[in-house]
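Handout, page 2. Input:
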Amino acid sequence: MTDPTSLPNFPPPPQDRPLTGRVLDALQDLTFSPNLDSQGDIAFEVQGQRLFVKIITGEQFDIMRVFGQWQIAETVPDDMTTRLNGCNDVTLGVNLVKAGIANNNLVLAVEQIVARQEAPKGKVQVATGLILQALQLWHRNVIAKSQVERGLQPDLPPDAPEGTEVGPWLSVGTQGGTGTTEGGSGQAGQQ
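Output:
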C-alpha cells in the first residue's frame, strides 16, 4: 500500500474553480510569470510589455478583461485628434480591442466572456496577441497620420514587408479643417 500523502493532488473541475485561478494556471503554462495583487488583479509580462487581467464575476459566466496601459512617448505628436483617430482605427480595425487615452496614457483592453467550465488559456493567448498588435498599429498610425497632415511622406518601419503602405485609415485627420482622404493622402491646412 502506498503512502496517501504521495498520491497526486488533482485540481477541482473547472466549474468548481474561480476564473482567477484558471487564468493564473494558463499564464503559468504560457510562461508569463503572473503575479496576483491585493485587489485580485493579475499582472504578467509578455515580450517586454506589462499586461493585466481583471476578472469580473457574474452569476452565470465571468468576464475576463486583459489590458495594458502605456505612457505616450514624447516622440508621438501632441495633437489629441490624431491620437484619438489612432484609437478609433484600432477599435474599428481590431474589433475585439478597445482603445482610449486617459491621463496621457494609451489604454488597450480586450474583454471576453468565459464560461464556468471553459479553460481560459486560448482566450488569454488571443487577447494578449491582439493587444500587442494593436499597440504597434496605434503607434504606427499616429506617427504616419501626423506626417501626412504635415504634407510629408509617412515613414514605414525598416522591417515592413515590401509593398506595405500606411493606411487606408478608418478615421480621417481633421487638423486644419481639410482632413485627409480615405487613403491618407490629403493635405493638412496651416494654422
